[in-house]
Amino acid sequence: MTSKRLDNYGKINRDKIFSFSWDHKNYYGYEGDSLASALLANDIKIIGRSFKYHRPRGIMSCGVEESGALVTVGTQDRKDPNVRATTQELYQGLVATGQNAFPSVNFDIGGINNYLSRFFAAGFYYKTFMGIPPFEWGSGTSIWMFFEKIIRKAAGMGKLSRLPDPDHYDHAHDFCDILIVGSGPAGIAAAKEAADKKLDVILVEQDNLLGGDQLAESDFDIEANYTELKSLGVRVMHRTTAFGLYDNCVLGLLERVTDHTGIVNQSLPRQRFWTIRAKHIIVGSGSFERHIAFNNNDIPGIMTVNASKHYLNRYGILTGKNIVITTNNDSVYPTAGALFEAGAKVTVLDARRDINLEKKISDNIEVRNGCVPYNINGSREINSIDIAETSNNPFRKTDTINCDHVLMSGGWSPAVHLLSHRGEKATWNKEHLCFLPGDTKEKISMIGSARGIWNKDDCIKSGIAGTLEAMNKMGLSKTNYFFPKEGGWKNAIQPLYEVKYNKSRSKSFVDYQHDVTADDIRLAHREGFISVEHLKRYTTLGMANDQGKMGNIIGISLMADLLDKEIPEVGTTVFRPPFTPISIGALAGRNVGKHFRPLRITPMHQWNLNNGAVMIEAGLYQRPWYFPKKNETLSDAYIRETTIVRKSVGICDVTSLGKIAVQGPDATEFINRIYTNPFAKLPIGKTRYGIMLRDDGMVMDDGTSWRLSEHEYLMTTSTAQAGKVMSWLEELLQTRWTDLQVNVTSVSEQWAAAAISGPKSREVLQNCIEDPSLIENENFPFMGFISTNLKGGIPCRIVRISFSGELGYEVYIVSDYANTMMDMLWKEVKEFNGCLYGLEALGALRVEKGHVTGAELDGRTTIEDAGLAKMASTKKSYIGSAMRKRGVLDSMEREQLVGFFPVNKNQNFDAGTIVCEKDNIEGFGIGRITSVTHSPELGHWIGIGFVKGGKEKWKNTVLIGSDPVRNKQMELQVVSPHMIDPEGKRMHA
Amino acid sequence: MNVVLAQIQSCTVNMIRIKCPYCGERDHSEFAYGGDASIKYPNLDASKEEWTEAIFFRENIRGFQKETWHHLNGCRMWLEVDRSTITHEIKSVKPCHPDLQKIMELKK
User: Fold this and answer.
1) Which of A270, A444, A484, A639 has its CA 20 to 30 A from that of A971?
2) How far is CA A43 from CA A1, A98, A300, A319, in A?
3) What Rg, from alpha-carbon coordinates, does chain A have?
């Protein structure tokens, strides 16, 4: 193929020249070029290498269905693989490289696969790596893993950069009355009609120019159409692909905002992901020209017929000198005429014997009726084409024509993708040889060639009919309308899918992108993969990134032939979104990095940082992890913090706990129903620890509730479950117990809280409040609650509870006073050589005491498992009381909470360790370690976790902790989870 | 609702719009799905069998079903939504709580 730019053709701007690089060499093109047209203008023939066989491939189409010219655009972190050169607009400085080839697409070592191709037929991997015959040697995962690396290298497409994507993407939403997909003659007509009727219209076009197939006409005026649509108020979105049609007329669109500029613009996203809700959708998505399967039908220089007309009239490129057009339908004749007028020698092979053309074509165009393409001679470019005659069965070579360019048209397939997304099956039309969109009850109208209408005037009529149908379906009018009949050619199309080669080894491609040949389809048939869904998966037909836009129907027709069935009996696969590939970045939008999820900080966040905290994310909260002194590691710091708390005093930010105000005359009854332990008689000014179960009897959360007054409680929840508990309480009150007069309000943000723990905590707190006598031991026992004032008259709430096992208090204060409170407390704590402690020390203190948290209460734990059975009331009913003892939940064999010591006190272990019996180290074992810490008090590592049968069963047996992930194993001793001060003397002190 | 899950959901196309009686029509990403609204939960002192029936047994309806949705990132009302499992079409939305239902009726 020798392609060249013509002077008087095309819609490009020759005043603006762009330089670009292809495979590290510089070339020039014009504004308005696509990368493909610019490559053609430079007469570059080989653009890609095929997926499996590494065969050279050239440009085969002019649109999204491109299978040959897949390239990588951009460099480094802006590298975008598998870009269709046909749809990539050219810009100044564009850098494109060939892919799936080494060292280059021009000379590719992988090309050897072409000679080994008989080993790479469909199902090759499945067969080979199930084990190598005769003894299925090496079957199993490991051999596959070994070969996979090699195969992945050899087969495939472009490579990702593996660098973080530096671009940003947006999500956007919009609404309209009618959304029209496609700006071909039908789409534009529909838009004008709808805008005329004063409807709010969005017209979506994936191309940068309006016009659809009219862009291949020499006299189509883009500007005039655009201006008219604008003046009518139509909102035109170009460079925007309607990639998916969803329920209720919701359309997903991808707008390429800066991909065509090559300029990084911080104020613009690279792409926008649109969700548009329309009241009605009109789909004028056009149709795809099919190719024909015959031997070597992929040699560079092969193309669909209509594509060459686009290159001629849109880009001013004559794609060949000596052109052979092969067809089975009328659509090619205007193209033949245009190519001839542009200076090419044109020969048409028409499979049909007798045709009577609408317009007479030039006598200088040779039309050979009853002829089909049989074989292309050449390897890197076309030298000649062998032809066969339809009268011969089987086909055989009857003649050879020298040529440099072969165009194919095997018929047209309406782009029914969007309707298919809605689950509407397309139906095979025997007359027009294509799948036509079926009727739908949804508010969707199909127009133009997507409806199977080939004739332009009829397409325009169908567009107007589409709008009228839309208005009727929307209930805006009751107009009579009719759609023109499908078809529109004077001579009937004749079936022509494959011209079978009579030699044994043929390469008649059905699906170019995945190198699926007609022989592969026959192989699938021989091996029993005859259902179209099996065929697809076995041969990977239609599974490349064009999703079978060109090849699917040929594959189906071949299978129908083999099965001696009609095409509708074989059926078709369902098209699913996206219509063309969309980037993950666009799906993610702005939900990346720090914006992946919201970040919550406590009111004393800055205070913590100022005082040297290292933060950690817990739930969504940033919490202090540890407060290192100079050169201290995490381990040094938390051991120091833990030791100081046990010896003297420490303070810790516990604001992240969930806080819920429970108010109303039935508050007591409500609280009593949701906790397992009795709350009915909790006096005012007292607080109680409670456990909540789910309906099914599993533990949901734990926390404390304080009785503030007769009808008012403050409930605290764990950090992680705060949101869930709040929703749960609302659900109960609004759906189940609608007679209860209770209101729940989340006050988590309103109150800041600090825990003061350690033997000196009372003294610290007494120095901070207005009336120290209030919290004397006898006035304020364990689990007491008071509302009082900090010095300076700052109101606060104090509860005497302890998570550390030491004497401890939690002080709650209106969030705005958080820093003042921390300053006040910290000043006093320092007087006692106390410390600030973080989440790590908090964890160490609670593990030493055997207190459970989310690691233990993971949704699979019953109240008995957690060792809290005595908190389950037998005197009342509560949520989960009926179910908590059902079946297996009541088994004595269940895992129970225990403590673990290493037998060798110098050894440590990690959470996640599996606990096994000594002679039976396998599987899930008999238990697991859920939380671990170094205990400064005991001087060695300790853990809590679960073991079947609990402490009573294993207290005298050495068990094995197995940690296959870290490749560790240690001997364990099962102990009580309450490892320090089991009687609780300290916290009552 | 699980935060990461909510994030993933917000990355996909939002097809369902729910007319919250208090806030107006909103994307379903503002809501959290609850469960089967037709379930009558037994009394707390009911038998294990009754509870098992209420918790574990569900109809797998093809067509309209009544379900609860929580307007989590809105007014936090629990709503009874009559939705088609085939087309996502929503026939009606009303507050689960009968008193809220009455108030919403009065507002009209």
Assistant:
1) A639
2) 8, 15, 11, 9
3) 37
Hey, of A596, A675, A726, A734, which one would you mutate to test binding to chain B, going by the most B CBs within 10 A of its CB?
A734
Q: Which CATH number fits domain A600-656+750-844: 3.10.20.30, 3.30.1360.120, 3.40.1410.10, 2.60.370.10?
A: 3.30.1360.120
Please compute Rg for chain B using Cα positions: 15
pLDDT at position A117 is 72
Interval B41-95: pLDDT, tens = 999 999 999 999 999 999 999 999 999 999 999 999 999 999 999 888 899 999 9
Q: Which helix (H) or strand (E) holds A798?
A: strand A794-799
Number of domains in chain B: 1
CB neighbour list of residue A807: distance below 8 Å, 6 or more residues apart: A757, A758, A759, A761, A762, A986, A987, A989
Query: Does residue A963 carry a pLDDT above 70?
Result: yes
CATH number given to A1-161: 3.10.20.440
Query: pLDDT band at residue A343, thresholds of 50, 70 and 90?
Result: very high
CATH of the domain at B35: 3.30.2270.10
Q: Return the pLDDT at B5.
A: 46
Phi/psi of residue A40, nearest 5 degrees = -65, -40
Domain spans of chain A?
Answer: 1-161, 167-289+412-492+578-590, 291-410, 503-563, 600-656+750-844, 658-746, 891-989
User: In chain A, which residue's Cα lies nearest the Cα of B36?
Assistant: A735
Percent of chain A whose pLDDT exceeds 90: 82
- Domain A167-289+412-492+578-590, CATH among 1.10.3720.10, 3.50.50.60, 3.90.870.10, 3.40.190.10: 3.50.50.60
CA distance A524 to A123: 8
pLDDT digits (tens, 9 = 90+) for A253-296: 999 999 999 888 889 999 999 999 999 999 999 999 999 999 99
ipTM over 0.95: no
pTM of the predicted model as reported, rounded to 2 decimal places: 0.87
Q: How many other C-beta atoms can be found within 10 angstroms of the C-beta atom of residue A233? A: 12
Facing residue for A731 by CB, picked from B14, B44, B78: B78
Closest chain A residue to the Cα of B37, Cα to Cα: A735
